[in-house]
Structures are given as structure tokens and as C-alpha cells.
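Fold it.
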Amino acid sequence: MSALLRQIPANIPQDMRKIRIENSHLTELPRGSFENISALEYLWLNFNNITVMHIKSLEYLPALKELRLQGNKLSSVPWTAFQDTPALKILDLKHNRLDVLPEHALRYLPNLTYLDLSSNQLTVISRDVFYSWPVYQRSQRAEGQIEAISNAVLALHDNPWICDCRLQGFVQFIKSVGPPIILMNSYLTCSSPKFRAGKFFHEVELNSCMKPLTSALDTNLTVPVGLNITLTCFVQASPSPAVWWTYALKLLRPFNVSTEPISEETVRSELLIPAARPVDAGNYTCTAANFLGNTSVAITLWVRAPWASTPDPGWAPIGPAEPGAHVEVRIAKQTVYGITLEWFAAAAAAAEPGETWYTLLVGRYDAAQKDAIYIGPGVNTYSVTDLLPATKYEVCVAVRNQAPRKGQCVVFVTGSDVSQLEQREKLIHIIVIVCAMVLAVPAGMYACTAEARPGCLARCPGTCPRRRGGQAQAAGSKESTLDSLPAGSEDGLCRPEGCHGGRRPPACEEPGKTRPPHRNSADLY
């Protein structure tokens, strides 16, 4: 008790008949946990942390009579593991986390006299689980006979039972069960759905399961612009289905959808569309599904002005003209890509300004069909954006979707995209200036070097006698190319004093001294 054991000890004596390990830290029952203790009859492992039980964890225990696993964390049990314990009479699994009981669960427990599955998470059980139990089968064969059959106690209370059609067979079994099978607590209660929560099994009548059947009172609706509209569909199904709405193959957000049961097998789902606009028109699909299948119903919604008889917003009158309904229109602001309009309704239109609707028709001047924009009551200004620059447009404002009259239309031309033109012009100017500077530098150098050469030769006829012949020959060849010119115009460094005083110029160096290599002006540049 309360030992720090994390696994079944391996040194248990082979003749041990009863083992009790409780309030410890066991987390699993591995394969062959008791393979050396074949004489074991009683195994109590209550209030541990066992979450996993291997399918061969009870191997080599043919004499086991009592297995108690109360207060652990088992969410499932390998029921076929009980093939190795044919003598088992007591199985205690209460206060675990079991949520499923398969149909073959009790098939390998033929001698069971006590089964406790209370205080788990069981919600739905098939009656076939108990119909395949050997104890129940023996009781049915012995009915009306004097044959003595031992009783079997069954505990199933304190589970969150879902009392719908899936539990119909199990509820019937509970109502009809009797000795030798005895319920520890026969007052099993429903946890859901809400209208059955808290009711006892013997108080409810469950019907057979049914595939969803969807319907709508009206599948074609036409509503005016700006009106709040609620689309409603009804679903008959058992068990209660999941319901969702789609529009243009997109799932609609659930906060606009409300679904509630109105009877045991009927659900009403409503989709709210606030302030309906023309873009809200289309097909809305209500879909319902349960484990038997799914079905849907489509509702078509048309949205138009409340006075319109057809949904086509053309230039022709849609309703009867109202005498004196005139609108004065002006442009309040204009940009490159749009304008802001203001209008004032006079005469009959101004009699009820809080109820007057307007139709704004916008399009190119030469377009046969204009886009219609519906403006609600109390609004007398509107901005039109995303227009093309340098394009001629026409905008008209009419009262109650009537054809525009003379003076209710404005023709305008959007401006040019000046900012982009200015940027392009500046870029061109910069490119021209840079190109001119690049081309002017080599030309200027050529002109300067060409003028400097003859002047230097004229001033230094006698000071540089060793270069005179070479220079004369170059002058005689009359080469005027840029590459033939000396790199630094060395002749320009000669002085009137010649080579007799002051610093010696480069042209008057000693004959034996090596001159620097020749570089043309192109290399210098």
C-alpha cells in the first residue's frame, strides 16, 4: 500500500494466491506480468495510474477469480485478454475512463458473477454486448426451467448516457432485464440531449434512427436592399444532426448561424444576413448530417431595391415616374482616380428625406450599360474611386431607381497621372546631362593637348636638342590621332632658361637616364 512501485515486482513467490498493490505508481500492465505466479486467484490493483493494459498481461493466470482495477486511468480494455482467465468471477472497473464497450466485450467472461462499469465515460452501448454474454444466454435458455443458475450483478450507473436512437436497444434491455442478471442501480439516468437530461431510462421512449431530412418553407426569396433577412431550414433526424450553411461552396461563419431543437427529432437552423446587399444574392445551402448520412436544401436569395420589379439596373425606368422628383448633382472633389459627388433632392423627393433611396449610375461616357449603386436614405454624398486616369466618365443620380433626367448627370474627365510623368521627365534630364558630361571630357582633353604641343616646341628649340629630330619627324608625319599624343605633354614643362639653371625639367635629363614608358591620353582618361 502506498509503495513507490512503478512496475510489478519480478521476485514474487510462485505459490502466491493473493496480490494487492494499491495507491502506488503503476502505469501499465505489460505482457506476462504474472507469468511465474500461475496459482494467483486474487489481484487487486486499485487506485494506481494504470493507463495501458497489454492483451497478454493476464497470461498464465488460469486460476484467477477476482480482478479489481478501480480508480485507474484506463480508457479502453483489451477484452480478449480474458481468454486467459476462464475462472474469473469478479471484474471491477469502476472509476476509470472507459468510453466504448465493444460487442464482444463480455464474450470471454462466461463465469462472471459481478461486473462493475459504473462511473466511467460510457455514452452509447449496443444491446448486443449483453445478448452475446454467456451468462445472459444461459438465463434465456433456462427460462421456465428449474435449473439453478447463479446470479450476476451488473453496475452501469453514473455514466453520461446519451438518450437518443442509438441507445434504443440498450434502454429496452435495461427495462426488460431480470434475474439472474441483477442491476446494482436500476435507475439509470440520461445526460443528454437537453430535453431528456435527468430523466430515467424507464421514463423515455426512443425511436429508431433516421437519416436527416431537410426542408425550407420558402426556397426562393426576394428582399429589398438594406433589409435584415433570416434564412430558415428545418431538419428531421435521429440522432440530432450537425447543421451548417454554405454560400458559393464556402462555409459560413457560425456566429451568424443559430441551431436549436424544436422537438425530439426536429431541429431549426437560422442564418442571419444583416443589411442585405446585391452582393449577398445567390444560393445558400443548409446541410445536415449524422452517422446515417447527410442531406441539404438550397435557398435562392435575390436582393434588389424595394421599389424594383426586376433585378436589372439599366438606364430604362424600372418603376413609375414620380412627377417633380428631381436631384441636383455636383462634383465636390476630384482626383486622378475618382470623384466625390454631392446631390440635393428637391420637390417630391425632399418631402420624405428619411425614406428616399437613390440610384447612382457610373460608367464610361460611351458605355451602353452603367454600374448601379444603391444609396440608402439620409445619404447625400458618395465617393467613386478606382477610375482610370485621363478617361471620360458619366455619373447620374436618380430618385427611387428612376431613369435620370436632364441635369441629374455629370460628365467629367479624370486627370492625368502627373506625378509619374514628372518623375519620368526628371529621369530623362539626368540621363542627358550625364551623357553630355561623359562625352565632353575626352573631347576637351584632345583639344587642350593639341594646342599645348606646338607652343612648347616653339619655346624650346635649343634647350632640348636630343628631342628636336624626333619631334620634327612627328610633326612632319602630321599625325593627329589622340593615341599618338604624349601622355603628360612633357614639352610643356620646358622653361625659357633651358637646362642651365634651377630645377632640371624632365625633357633635359641626361642621355643615359631611362625615360618613363609612353602613355596615351586614352589610358590617362
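The longest helix spans residues 418-459.
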